[in-house]
Amino acid sequence: MSELPPESWHAQLRLAYERREARTVLSERRHNGPLVVQKSLYPEGEAVCHNYILHPPAGIVGGDRLALEVRVGEAAHVVLSTPGAAKWYRSAGRTAAQHMLFDVAGILEWLPQETIFFPGTAAELDTRIDLAGAARYLGWEIYCFGRPAASERFDTGNVRQRFEIFRNGRLLWCEQGRIDGGDGLLDSAAGLAGEAVAGTLFAAGVAIDAATIEALRALRAASGRLAVTAFEELLLVRYLGPSTEHAREVFAVARGILRPLVCGVPDQALRIWRT
Predict the structure, then answer these.
(1) Which distant-in-sequence residues (6+ apart) come within 8 Å of 114 by Cβ?
(2) Which of 97, 102, 211, 273 has the most other CB atoms within 10 Å of its CB?
(3) What is the pTM assigned to this prediction?
(4) In whole angstroms, what is the distance from residue 75 CA to residue 20 CA?
């Protein structure tokens, strides 16, 4: 692996969306540093606004700080994704951090491509989702520890992660953890069980019926390690396996099952997945 420049980037991006008559519009866009958003797209019509978030540098290195804040107004529907994988490179000692805050009164779908943690990464990820009123959220995170295609295990480094969902100030879900390179948890049945890729899909804001849950659980036959857990207004789909491509495929199918119920619109694959 080639060495990366020692300089660190500090970047912030703030986006706000609102509903104007029949159209969801990006009403506010502020950025500082190399974290930007492409122009708004409307492949499903004016009611659903699609945007892609770009981090132009080649990847994230020790000392980088990324902050993303997204506000979705009442009745607005936003789909956010990324054009490529987020690559967190080996650190010379400093920790890189990513902080995301989603303040949602409408509907938000957060569908990024995978996050790859190279051996030697020092990473801290913090995500908070605040739902207000009848807000809905459908999103996923896919993490790859090491580079299995290059036979590189996550044998050094560490990744710390915290994820929270609130509804009207009430905590619905909180999870946090730490993965250390070379730790026994990577191979333990209580951890990653020797797999390199772990992902979670969240659906929040609506109760999921039994038939939908069974349809999701039926994906286990083709996906291997997959778990579905449902609460009153929160559903989790967990994936554990060898491939980020496989994880995306499984989650895309799960999203297709959930989207009509959670978001009130038919399934439609992201255009970027087809390029």
Answers:
(1) 85, 86, 142, 143, 144, 197, 199, 244, 247, 248
(2) 102
(3) 0.94
(4) 9
